[in-house]
Design a protein that fits this description.
By secondary structure, the chain is an alpha/beta fold. The protein is built from 14 helices and twelve strands. It has three domains: 257 residues, Malonyl-Coenzyme A Acyl Carrier Protein, domain 2 (3-Layer(aba) Sandwich); 45 residues, no CATH class; 71 residues, 2-Layer Sandwich (Alpha-Beta Plaits). α5 runs antiparallel to α8 and α8 packs antiparallel against α11.
Length: 402
């Protein structure tokens, strides 16, 4: 979402298996490493995970034992037949979270971010790699702005991705940081942050993730330019009432201007996207539905709706050409608030994510219900910490910036 979306929402409303796999530094290893309308396929083939498939037609089975067996829950195996690896997508469905890394989405950026990261070589190296991939000096824009440039969709998305992974490297070198990283057994990110979470979990390399994020920002901006859309924050209503408000507004506009809930952020705080006329109709009716307020968001378009459909084909093509592996720990999807193990399913989810509502409320609620003990927000801003605390005042969450 655009630069002001998540920050505006929060400001208006606030008045087990991973520890077995220690993740090496991003600067080297990664370069070699709720409801939704979308129905995604699930491949059930007992406990199978992908490794490099054999080019022969022989059947090969390999297993990967977790580093710390006494904390083990999942033993990963794969079956390769010919050149195709078969994966059980529901491998992580019974995950039991204890420690989580949470990554921010678009809107968390701020001029000055990334400056601290230059004190840690592994973190500083990420910005150097980013400059080569992006073709411009990302660090300079992060540290010095101007704000308007940093806030643009095509720059803010790569900036947040890189800065969030740089924050992991800052965390790694602090006292006890590596041990905490080793203990993390679930991760997720808000919209754009899902790509960061997948990179952290080893689903794709830092470089490949950045290329995807770069293309995602460009594709979303182009889709927004092609159709006039808008977003508005609805404050003070539960999700059912917001849906009723959308239904009422949609009765007064054509199909092209209809609105829908785009971001289930947290109780009493939801974002609606759609055509400009639909958003205007919704704003006019909000008081009669007893909404406390509406806040028009300064975004490029109607993100997380069908207005972003033109971006899907570009993402699908890029994802098809990207090597994606089964994450080492559960990564919770924004589309259905579930973890997925099958790389092909992950690709489908990421392609549809830009048109699907963000199920962040369900994600956080599920983590807390499943017994999450502590979480860390890594990257710029404190939006996620605010959401988590709003949902559970007793929740333990720490911010780690860069």
């Amino acid at each position: 979402m655009h630069s002001h979306l998540h920050r505006s929402l929060i400001q208006r409303t606030l008045s087990s298996s991973s520890s077995r796999f220690a993740l090496p530094p991003f600067s080297n290893s990664l370069s070699t490493m709720a409801s939704s309308s979308l129905t995604l396929p699930s491949i059930s083939l007992h406990k199978q995970l992908p490794f490099n498939a054999s080019s022969s037609n022989s059947l090969r089975i390999r297993s990967l034992q977790p580093r710390n067996p006494d904390r083990s829950r999942v033993f990963m195996t794969s079956v390769s037949v010919g050149s195709q690896a078969l994966v059980n997508d529901s491998l992580f469905s019974d995950y039991s979270p204890t420690s989580a890394f949470l990554f921010p989405g678009q809107g968390a950026q701020a001029v000055g971010m990334g400056k601290e990261a230059q004190n840690v070589p592994a973190a500083a190296e990420l910005y150097k790699k980013a400059n080569d991939i992006l073709g411009f000096d990302l660090l300079d824009i992060c540290v010095n702005g101007p704000k308007e440039k940093l806030d643009s969709t095509v720059i803010s998305q790569p900036a947040i991705y890189v800065t969030s992974l740089a924050a992991v490297e800052l965390f790694r070198v602090r006292d006890g940081g590596q041990q905490i990283i080793d203990s993390v057994d679930v991760t997720c990110g808000l919209s754009l942050g899902e790509y960061t979470a997948l990179a952290f979990a080893g689903a794709f390399s830092f470089e490949d993730g950045l290329k995807l994020v770069k293309l995602r920002g460009e594709a979303m901006q182009e889709a927004a330019d092609a159709a006039k859309g808008a977003m508005v924050s609805i404050i003070g209503l539960d999700s059912e009432k917001v849906q009723q408000l959308c239904d009422a507004a949609n009765q007064e506009v054509d199909e092209a201007d209809k609105v829908q809930i785009a971001n289930y952020l947290c109780p009493g705080n939801y974002a609606v996207s759609g055509g400009v006329k639909g958003v205007e109709a919704l704003e006019a009716k909000a008081k009669s539905f007893k909404a406390r307020m509406t806040v028009r968001l300064a975004v490029a378009g109607a993100f997380h709706t069908s207005f972003m459909e033109p971006a899907v084909s570009r993402l699908e093509a890029a994802l098809a050409a990207t090597e994606i592996r089964t994450p080492k720990i559960p990564v919770i999807s924004n589309v259905d608030a579930q973890p997925h193990a099958d790389p092909d399913t992950i690709k489908k989810i990421l392609a549809r994510q830009v048109t699907s509502p963000v199920q962040w409320e369900t994600t956080v609620k599920t983590l807390l219900t499943k017994g999450l003990k502590k979480s860390y927000e890594l990257g710029p801003g404190k939006v996620i910490a605010g959401i988590v605390k709003r949902m559970d005042k007793s929740a333990v969450i720490e911010n780690v910036g860069a």
